[in-house]
Amino acid sequence: MPPIPSATKRATVCALALAALAVVAPFSVRGVACGHDLTFHMNSWMEVAQQWRQGVVYPRWAALANYGSGEPRFLFYPPLSWILGGALGSFLPWAVVPAAFAACAVFLAGLAMHKMAREWFDEPDATLIAIAYALSPYMLLAIYVRSAFAELLAASFLPLLVLWIVRDRPARAMFIPLALTIAGVWLTNVPAAIIASYVAVLLLVAVTVVRRSSRVFWYGVAAIAMGLLLSSFYIVPVLYEKSWITVGQLLSAGVRPAENFLFTRIGEPEHDSFLRTLSWLAVGELAITGVAMFFARGWRRRNPTLWWSLAILAGVSLALTLPIASLAYRLMPDLRFLQFPWRWLMVTGIAYAVFLVAAVPKFRGKASLYAVLFVTLIAVCNLALQPPCDPEDTPSMLSSVFHAGYGYMGTDEYAPAGADNYEIKPDYPEFAIRGEDGRPAADARVTHLHAGPYRKQLTVDSSQPVALVLRLMNYPAWRVEVNGSRITPLADDPTGRMVIAVPAGSSEVDVRFIRTPDRWLGDGLSLAAFLSLFAFWYGERRSARALGL
User: Fold this and answer.
1) What are the tens digits of pLDDT across the range 283-336?
2) How many folded domains does the chain comprise?
3) Is the same domain home to 386 and 337?
4) What is the rounded CA–CA span in Å between residue 22 and residue 144?
5) Are residues 355 and 453 in the same domain?
6) 220 and 295 belong to one structural domain
7) Which of 47, 55, 341, 467 has minimal Cβ neighbours within 10 Å of its Cβ?
8) Residue 2 has what pLDDT?
């Protein structure tokens, strides 16, 4: 495609910005959507912003989770979404941050889809495809019902996978952008990253067959590997430290693939009601995609590789949302951690957007017609999908509760192994001292206390050996020293709080959150991958200059 004129670029950006604002416009009347994941994300964003103000550049430990006992949330949850949320909350009122985040995600998804569409389509179709993707029914459900902010942000990477792999360029040209895209999606949302990895391999196989060139496949595989290495600073600690948390909660009752295929019922009213709504929405989006694919069949002759790639993605996505795919979720590596098979609708959205616009020939009023359709879709989805908020679940109330200083409920899967975060109470003190009989030690006292997110220092005076129970989850990354000697703390039963044996007399207790070897390894791999990618880029530039390109 020829370069895009500046005026056209500005018009596209304005159109995408208007689409993003239109998505959140109903919030000005009905209030911000209080979706399933709103509380989790808002607590993460507010904690990140608070730790930044305390001088912590890259948070690892969520100190206020479990009502001040903490959890390793920022070690296990990918960073890009909580960084964006924390950044927005650093200069916007917290009551509007969810709406601002959703608008940013819609805008970025549109930009990514526009970049992909411009490879094969002229304006205004490329912009219409971008808006159709950003406003696909599943995206609107993710905003109005689920508040799945990380998933929304990850949607901006999926069209880029199609672009880098399917476009008709030399195989070497995909290496750098595909590696960066794979790294980006893994640093945004794990379920979306699992989907993206399978999509990338599927597309590589399809394009390799069409082009009859194994170079496409091997450059693509190398790019995927490089992307994983770039994100090793996140992935390696997750893989190494997952045995330190209650990771089995990721596949607990209600969030297993077998319980979340389309139209599945498990007898839990809230689950079944949501899944029924989502299933009919999926039927609508898939049906529109199928009909549009039929009417766009003439376009297949002009762009066969893209047409068949999108058709394959739509077909595979449909199959993986149905119970017939249950064996795949049991056998294919890590696919079960997708939890909800209907997340494949993110991929369906790419085919939906392209075929929806390509099926209609160009005519003078085409853009106006689609604008009306998009506004109607937003209004209908918002009225049909967005539930009323309970007062305690609104962003304003979540912000007020957080800044009251009591902390917040932790996340089941991030609780240290053997701990029960439901036993943690909001009124637990910073520390408690127990005698050998397990009762409070009356004559023991703490004469000095310094407590920060990543270090706690105490001076304990006692005439007898005591057990110091901290309001801190016992996690292996905490290093404990008593009078300069390193010790291994125990875990309080059943809360999982840290218990430190302190001898009689005056004792200095120092507890630090340290950088474990797996994090050093992950950081080193990421740095090495970045330098390797830079060397490849520099070599390509020198070769291009030598050839006068």
Assistant:
1) 999 999 999 999 988 888 888 899 999 999 999 999 999 999 999 999 999 999
2) 2
3) yes
4) 13
5) no
6) yes
7) 55
8) 59
What average pLDDT score do residues 74-100 get? Answer: 97
Question: Is residue 542 assigned to a domain?
Answer: no
Helix/strand/coil for 156: coil
Q: Which residues pair with 162 in a beta bridge?
A: none
389/437 same-domain check: no
Rounded to 5°, the CA angle 490-452-522 comes to 75
pLDDT, average across residues 132-149: 96
Domain that holds residue 457: 429-508
In a domain, 460, yes or no: yes
Same domain, 258 and 373: yes
pLDDT above 90: residue 546: no
Question: CB-based contacts of 182: which residues, under 8 Å, 6+ apart?
Answer: 193, 196, 197, 200, 223, 224, 226, 227, 228, 230, 231
Q: Would you give the DSSP letter of residue 440?
A: B
Nearest to 115 by CA among 246, 260, 13: 13
Say if residue 220 is in the same domain as residue 183. yes
| Residue 334 zone, left/alpha/beta (φ > 0; ψ -120 to 50; rest) | left
* Assigned token pair, 515: 């950088």
> pLDDT tens across 153-173, in order?
999 999 999 999 999 898 899
CA distance 260 to 113: 28
Q: For residue 518, tell me if it sits in a domain.
A: no
Q: Is residue 417 part of a domain?
A: no
8-state DSSP, 144: I
Mean pLDDT rounded to a whole number for the chain? 93
Judging by DSSP bridges, how do beta strands 455-462 and 445-451 pair with one another? antiparallel
